Amino acid sequence: MRLNLSRVGMHVFVLAGLCLPLVCSGQAAASGQKRAKGTSGRGGSVAPADPNAPKGIYPTSHGVIKSISGSQLFVEVDDEHDMKFRMTHKTKIFTQSKDGQGKNVSKEVKTSSLEPGQTVDIDMQSSLDGAFEAVRIVVLLGEPANAEPAK
Fold it and tell me: Per-residue pLDDT for 31 more than 60?
């Protein structure tokens, strides 16, 4: 089988040209260059962020508190699955309810206010030992325990 190197070289060059903008944008973010606050990068504006949201991107789990034992929080995420979260000194806990105009109102609370049966959203991260650490817990007040998570 003969390989036409000029044709292979051209494909590599074209693919590299297509990938270059993606690499460059990743390098700008990795090198510490940041966009100005309130811009989305395409001329549009970004919706105001939740001031209580943790910095960074975290996966969120939705469920009902099953039990609390020391720094361990057990949450039933569906009929067949429970998850265990470790709470640390960095874990922030908020209650969220709606005011008269239907806007979400958040208030920071203490760990002692968590009770079994409450519906929660938990932003989490994995620790070095593989356990899930709760970064932020939002107690959803007024939401039934069997409600589906908001999209």
Answer: no
